[in-house]
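Trying the structure run again after the queue cleared.
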Amino acid sequence: MLKISEKTPKSLCFGDFSYDLVSGELRKGRDLIPLRPQAVRVLKVFVSRPGDLISHNDLGAEIWGDAPVMWQDGMHQIIRDLRKALGDDPKNPVYIETINRRGYRFHLKAKTPPHRLAAIKAAFSIKSRDALLFGGGVLTIPMMIVTACLMLGITG
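Done. Tokens:
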């Protein structure tokens, strides 16, 4: 099984923010920005698919799975919460762009080189309930992300 050391890079930096790819914590400088669990899941989807149009249905499935819920109000509140946390203005967005009646696009102004972002995107592309067999053990999704970061030399 892969052992993760304290020196393992595990965050993605963009703008004034750092996002911990393992814990889901968002920080501005050293300050932890509290996010509800649903907002953490949406941010994970956003950073895993920068620049992509992410439909309401895709986000709803990530947050609530197959549960039969009226997601529109909840989704809008989660996006408002994320925008507030990022200091983003919906009328002049830096990070979260609304694509009317279709979904959202996350603009990642990353301090991480594009080829390294591709590895992070690939690591997130496997559903969180899945796992990858690795050397006779199971490599979980957070460990896969850390492994991709290590392989590419991403520092946190």
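The chain has one domain: 11-152. Worth checking whether this holds up in the mutant runs.
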